[in-house]
Amino acid sequence: MIDDRSSSLPMLVLLVVLVFVYRFGIITYQAWDLEPSPTFEFLYTAAFLCGFVWWLKAEARTSAAKDVYCLGLLVGTGWIIMIPYHLFKTRGLRGFIPLLALLLSFITAYLLAVFVYMALSSYLRAN
Is the pLDDT of residue 2 over 50? Predict the structure, then answer.
């Protein structure tokens, strides 16, 4: 029997990649004192909200919790409290693993962007 939770794994991986690329881009923009494109910001916001809704839908298939009427409203307004609560109630402490993966993508993107900035700035100063 295939575990139904594995159906939400590809969406989680895509969310982690999205968060990593966005954070890396924003930090790179900030490091070079540039303003990010409004299109870049809009696409990230739309993709993040859609990604979280799709991920929650995949998670809800295996949950005993009732389906939420409007996942978009939940994710748009109360995600910081509701998503960890939902994951904890449906999975226990294992529910924090996806949130930890997202947090690690934030931190990794930040560290990688700082490293790239330092390497490029020292290279450009040398030439």
Answer: no
